[in-house]
Amino acid sequence: MSFTETAQDMRDEIVQLRHSLHTTPEIGLHLPRTQEKVLAALEGLPLEITTGSALSSVTAVLRGGRPGGQQGPAVLLRGDMDALPVAEKNDLPYVSQVPGQMHACGHDLHTAMLVGGGAPAERAARRAGR
User: Fold this and answer.
1) How many whole angstroms separate alpha carbon 118 and alpha carbon 46?
2) pTM for the whole thing?
3) Rounded Cα distance, 49 and 79, in Å
4) b or e along 12-48 (b: 16 or more beta carbons within 10 Å of the residue's beta carbon)?
5) How far apart are CA 112 and CA 115, in angstroms?
6) Do residues 34 and 26 touch, judged by C-beta distance below 8 A?
7) Of the residues 1, 47, 109, 122, which has the fewest C-beta atoms closer than 10 A?
């Protein structure tokens, strides 16, 4: 399965994650529910996962390389996970359930997209023999 096919296959799962993040926004650097959802979404992938001690960050490393054990290129993907102190005023089925907080900035989408890149990237690296 190609990178694109894998990503398309995961579409509903990533949309569901984005909606889940959107309904439970958290402000600042203490984001335990968000961190928990990200960790659950990455579970089972062969990633080196670490979490922050002073804040609710998640770092997931996919080790790659070239055949013969040579080090390959590195790519960094980064996103924010926090929300804003803004009251959400719409009637979407995934509207914020936290009064006075919402993902008006798109960080819920950024987070879901980064999680969604994990499986296709891992499968592409495996196919390339890395």
Assistant:
1) 9
2) 0.86
3) 15
4) eebeebbebbbbbbbeeeebeebbebbeebbeeeebe
5) 5
6) yes
7) 1
Beta strands at 58-61 and 48-51: parallel, antiparallel or unpaired: antiparallel
The H or E element that residue 9 is part of is helix 3-9
Amino acid at 26: E
Print pLDDT tens along the chain (130 aa).
777 888 888 899 999 999 999 999 999 999 999 999 999 999 988 888 999 988 899 998 887 766 777 777 777 778 899 999 999 999 999 999 999 999 999 999 999 998 888 777 776 666 665 5
**Residues linked to residue 49 through DSSP beta bridges, in sequence order:** 60
Q: Residue 103: which residues within 8 A CB-CB, separation 6 or more? A: 21, 22, 25, 83, 84, 96, 109
59-85: b or e for each residue (b if 16 or more CB lie within 10 Å)?
ebebebeeeeeeeeeeeeeebebbbee
